[in-house]
Sequence to fold (1165 residues):
Amino acid sequence: MAIREKGYTGWEGELKPSSQLWLPIFFSGIKTIFKKKYAKLIFGGVTFPFLIFLIAVYVRTKPELRLLSGLVRQLATDASLFNLFFTNGFLIFMLFIFCIFAGAELIAADLRFNALALYFSRPLDRLDYIGGKFSILLFYLLLFTLVPGLLLVAFKMIFSGSLSFSPLLLLAILVYPFILSMFLASFTLMLSSLTANAKFTRIIILLLYIFMDALAQMLRTVFKSDYFNLFSIQRNITQVGNLLFNKGQSAWNFPSWLSLLTILGLTLVFSAVLFLRIRRAEG
Amino acid sequence: MQNGTIVNLENIRFSYPNVQAIDDVSLTMENGIFGLLGPNGAGKTTLIKILLGFLAPQSGRGEVFGLTIGHQGHKGIRRHIGYMPESDCLIPGMDAVALTAYLGELSGMPHQEAIKRAHDVLYYVGLGEARYRQVETYSAGMKQRLKLAQALVHDPRLLLLDEPTSGMDPSGRKEILELIRDISAKGRMSIIISTHLLADIEYTCQHVIIMNQGRIITRAPIVSLSHERFNSFEVKLKGDAAEFLKQLRTKKCQVEEGEKNDFHILLPAIESSKLIFAIATRTGVQIRQLKKSQTTLEDAFLKAIGEADGD
Amino acid sequence: MNEKKTAWALLTTFFRFGWKNKRSRIFLLFSLIPVLLLLLVKIMQTARPASFTSAADLFSNIMLIFYFQLLIPVLALFFGSSVINDEIDNKTLVYLTVRPVPRWLVFTGKYVAYLLVMGLITFLGLVLSFLIANFDLLASAESWRQLLTYLAAALLAITAYSGLFALLASFMRKSILIGLFFVFGWESIVQYFPGTTQKFTIIHFVKSLLPYAPQKSGFLIFQLEPSPVFSSVLVLMLFSLITLIAAAIVFQKKEYILSDSN
Amino acid sequence: MSAVIQAEKLCKWYGNILGVSDINLEIQPGIKGLLGPNGAGKSTFLKLAAGQLKPSIGWVRIFGEKTFANHRIYSRIGFCPEHDSFYPDMTGWQFIFFMARLHGAASPRRAGEMTEKALATVGLTDKKDFLIKTYSFGMRQRLRLSSSLVHEPELLFLDEPLRGIDPLWRIKIIRLIKEYEKAGKTIIVSSHVLSEIEAMTSDIILIHQGRVFAQGNIHYIRGLIDAHPHQISIRSNRPRQLAEKLVRLENVLSVELDEATATLIIKTNQRDQLFDFLTRFLAENDIEVDEITSPDDNLQAVFDYLIGR
Fold:
């Protein structure tokens, strides 16, 4: 056997022009977030509401148990169960905490460590890069919304012993998490791409979350019109829940589809700003 | 790749808002190792970015590997380029193997192949034992090696190295230069090295391109630049030089004190180095070093830049 | 080498670059939005009086919700911790600590400069809101006294919060998450419960200074038992001073590693 | 002249990462080259001497005074750090002006003068009103250098001062440092590029694995390493005849003849006697010599020897 040739050896394989260059970004991003300090703590916090609702679904079928009676009374119908679960304040707040914890630095750290020079010296264009970053956040956000939703459906069937489930509600359970996750992901990534200072991005995400809600409530009490609720992120999300889960009756007197429009519109605007922002940084 | 031309640029012009960075550059490069030289802000990094397609030239056209530069062809071009940026850059939150494999995949390598190749190149650049450590904990020298590794992982056809040895200690620097020579010896790829260290270019490159203020001033094979100057010596002495220099001047030799505490002696045509030794023994001075003075790359560089600057 | 000159150099330079900075402009935007809101209300009120809650009542609510419970703590968290952390992250601390300036003065100079930046951002919004809200009562001395109380409360809130976060940052690298949990976790929860736990928050003493506790309005029901104004001012002043001095001492004594491998 | 810098039993650890250990030395005025591989402890020693770090054991003094947080002596020190760090929002002029005022310049006008002078020294005058983040790597390095010279200190610590600077300015800065030496200042230059150090000084301090291995003149140190015989390479028109003559000398250990390049490499332990003999011999015999060099009498050889052990 000849001695292995010392020094630089080439690579015989073929560099195939793949269109899914976002996949490597996706897989490595998932691993990096999972390895972060406190990641398990945050994951635990986000799945906490799911546990509460799981118990409530069980207790609902066993009225003799006196547990969580307040919550159970509100879960009379399946629709109200999922509506309440997907729009409860604690879940939304914890999703925001996750975006602050893991999402804020996704692009800011690349800007700070000048990683874009490495990324874009590869045959990768902005869509791959942004697509990859989006997919990382979507993976976790869906993990905390869609997966618990489907589990609740499964457990509801098991506990109530009947496989009957309204297809419309099932469709809503599939659609709502995507709308919410796309919104949160575009919001976080857009802010993350604005500055290399991840600390500033984290503070701005939380500041916007609280500021807009306070502003909406202030405007509503002053001008006595519920349309101002459109300013508040949480209220918009609640209205989208109402629209999808209990046939559009809204908690305030303004049409709930308007909130859906606002959320989708904002998602588009944030993604556009993000797209422009990366183009400038790529050069 | 027709007849081996890697890069072909014709009257490329590019300017940042207030600085004319590249002013009518035309250049063709065949297979080989090219040194890119020039003072700070001469346009070297801008030229590299144009080759990579980061910047689109305002006028002129060019091809790399036969694919036109500018925003359409850049994907094909970048696939076969290994780029080692000048400034510190890394992707946070990963260890060296993960980072190198990740960038290999982004160049189009299958996942498993990228991981295998990552280990090979990391061993090759000398990061074998530190390859599982997080990259943020790497020292300046190790980050340079990592940058070289990520540029080699997909076995490119053109390697662009921007200040490859900056921040390396002497033994590290020698190793990197040996690696570059070894890579060029294998002949699998061409290399463009942009650096301030002339010794690095003299040691590794075949051709040198000197740029200043966005224009290419000279482009020549290295060997043609450093030719020996007839009958002119650089001498280092031990002992009292005054008498020795006086006698040399009486023999119509021109003597000046050099930069690195040595003396430049120009002998008249008829004399040979023997005269220096003769006078030295007469004046009790020891000749510790005698070298024919060569126009080194540094002199060629200073002459080229000096003229342009009117320095 | 007199200290006065170098202290002045530190103060003016860090104030200028702190204020001109893009991030301060974004915070200024947040502080001016409530002013626009008040302006809108004032215009509507003059057009159709008595159909809206009066601007004056709105003013006190806006101050509490937007400024004292949100903007000031967030500003203090960002600027307070970046007095030191920015210098370490950008590795520029060495340019300051190698000059003939005592280290505590380097810290204090930059700290006070950032206090001025925060003060400017907050006071601008606060004074404008006050003028708009009490446009017609400007004659009465009472309303001017009220403005002074608000300004004093804001200043004390800024110094207290910034002191705390600067101290946290002086010996801990990642103090942002802890700061966020203190303000939006501990302080906001404890407000809903009566008893002494309230005393362990800055916001409690700040609210005790405000002219009148907000009525049980629709938004959030506070169980505020205000402690006496004098003791609140004393507590806030002492807290601000102690945290500032402690942070300066830590900065004087502690060595900060800027090497690559930190 | 009393020593400018003294250190005794100086040790420094970051957690359990070794910085420097057991350094005892005295540094006199003049240019000192601080040499050592990556991680040898050069930067740690500079930061300890400039008061940026606290010693774990032992002490280090400048002008007889302890250095950590001792701001009184910092007006006499200039420190050029190794990191490429800068204030992004400032222009070159504003940064140096700020540094000048920190040195308690009498008036803003005086600070302005100091700034203009410092920027001119490193050739950044025409770029002074540009934001630092638009500077190239070499220009930021020069700006850092001028920030350490703005108050013309007596003692200069330069950590990799010439990194990324083009040859034109490299020579000017080396000349500047030599002028400072003539003015009686002390300059400690840590560098990885040996040719830079050799161009500035022959007085070096070798640090490896956190310890000072050797201190003094390069050739003196090279002489100390006698276990490692010296090489002398001679290129002449008749190498074989020269070889016959030299091999008979008893202080010549070995002779190597390379016909292709007509070079003769001799190894000896008594270099002085050999050079004496060689100068006389070549004066009498008509051998045409083009080159006499000592291939391993430079820093690279000393450095490789140091690491090799």
Observations:
- The first strand of chain D starts at residue 5 and ends at 14.
- Chain D has two domains: 5-220, 225-306.
- Chain D touches chain B through 51 residues (CB under 8 Å).
